Amino acid sequence: MPDLYTEPFVANWKLNRVEAVSAQVPGVRIPMRGFMGSVGVLPGEKEVDEWLARESQLGAVGGVALPPEPTSARPAEVCGPNGSHKDKCLRTIPPRENGGNMDVKQMVEGTTLLVPCFIDGCGLFIGDVHFAQGDGEVAGTAIEMGAVVTVQTEIRKGMASLVKQPMFEGGSQIKALEPDRFHAVVGYPLKKAGEVPPQWTYLDSEKIKPLTNLSNDVTLAARNSLLAMLEWLQKTKGLSKEQAFVVTSVACDLRISNVVDVPNYAVTTICPMEIFDAK
Question: At what angle do helices 241-250 and 218-237 cross, to 10 degrees?
Answer without folding.
Answer: 120
